[in-house]
TrEMBL record:
UniProt-listed SMART domains: PKS_KR
Record's protein name: Short-chain dehydrogenase
Domain of life: Bacteria
Ranges where the Ketoreductase domain occurs: 24-194
PANTHER family: 5-KETO-D-GLUCONATE 5-REDUCTASE, ALCOHOL DEHYDROGENASE, PUTATIVE (AFU_ORTHOLOGUE AFUA_3G03445)-RELATED
Alphabetized Gene3D superfamilies for the sequence: NAD(P)-binding Rossmann-like Domain
Short name of one Pfam family: adh_short_C2
The UniProt record lists the keyword Hydrolase: no
Keyword field: Oxidoreductase
Keyword Oxidoreductase among record annotations: yes
Homology family: Belongs to the short-chain dehydrogenases/reductases (SDR) family.
GO terms assigned for molecular function: oxidoreductase activity
């Protein structure tokens, strides 16, 4: 798929009981793997018309095909959160596909090279700013503009437990995720009169490929994470996706400006 390709399908409604997100148009960024992939599959099962966005468009096409095979509605658009033009293009694609946006799960992220503060490079800091802060900021602004046309919507941003406390192993990542919490709260207050709810999630250790990559760079980190969680294990991506699904649904209609931990008690 090129940067201008958009995979489309006619809208269909999944069989089975009505779900939490029935007939909602929901964008999922970072949807090619991990929490984003789990969310896209769950939201579609809950009745949403999902638009999957990520840089790895080949992986998106596989997920889209699976969702369609199960009777859901899914489309894929390319998105590079470090590129403001790519963000604008992805939101424009959602508009062309569906003419509206009801929900957005901003889950895309970049991880830094693990290491102490005084060994973190300018390149790592720049990447964290571009993707984990500025990318989310620009995405939220574009999403909110499309949501206003149909009377509102809901946005959920994926932050991290590392935003809630000192993060000596991932200092730039933690700093930008803490900044993301701040703009999430600010957006919630700013856009509440327009019917747009904005919340965040702070997952703890989650069994994704990112953890695999961290384990490869820092052997033993997986065991350390498991030992730090009162439930005794990392969350599965589907468990984080369930929290996002609830926040995007009418079940959370009075919830905005919340930063919700999904961490097995690790942040308590």
């Amino acid at each position: 798929m090129t940067n201008t390709d958009i995979s489309t399908t006619a809208s269909t409604t999944p069989t089975g009981p009505a779900g939490l997100l029935l007939d909602r148009v929901v964008l999922v960024t970072g949807a090619s793997r991990g929490i984003g992939e789990a969310a896209a599959r769950l939201f579609a099962a809950e009745g949403a018309r999902v638009v999957l966005a990520a840089r790895q468009t080949d992986a998106l096409d596989v997920i889209v095909a699976d969702i369609r095979r199960d009777g859901g509605t899914a489309d894929a658009v390319p998105l590079d959160l470090a590129d403001p033009a790519s963000i604008a293009g992805a939101i424009a694609a959602v508009d062309r596909l569906h003419g509206r946006l009801d929900g957005a799960f901003n889950n895309g992220a970049a991880i830094q090279t693990p290491g102490p503060l005084d060994e973190t490079t300018d390149e790592d800091v720049d990447l964290q700013f571009a993707v984990n802060f500025r990318g989310h900021w620009r995405a939220m602004v574009a999403e909110a503009a499309l949501m206003r046309r149909s009377g509102g919507g809901a946005i959920v941003n994926t932050s991290s437990i590392g935003s809630r406390r000192a993060n000596p192993a991932l200092p730039a990542y933690g700093a930008m995720k803490r900044a993301l919490n701040s703009i999430t709260e600010t957006a919630a207050v700013t856009w509440a009169p327009q019917g747009i709810r904005v919340n965040g999630l702070t997952p703890g250790g989650t069994a994704t490929r990112m953890i695999d990559e961290w384990e490869a760079a820092s052997p033993g980190i997986r065991a350390q994470i498991d030992a730090s969680i009162p439930l005794g294990r990392m969350a599965e991506p589907e468990e984080v996706a369930q929290a996002a699904c609830w926040l995007l649904s009418d079940r959370a209609s009075a919830v905005t400006g919340a930063i919700v931990p999904v961490d097995g008690g690790a942040g308590a």
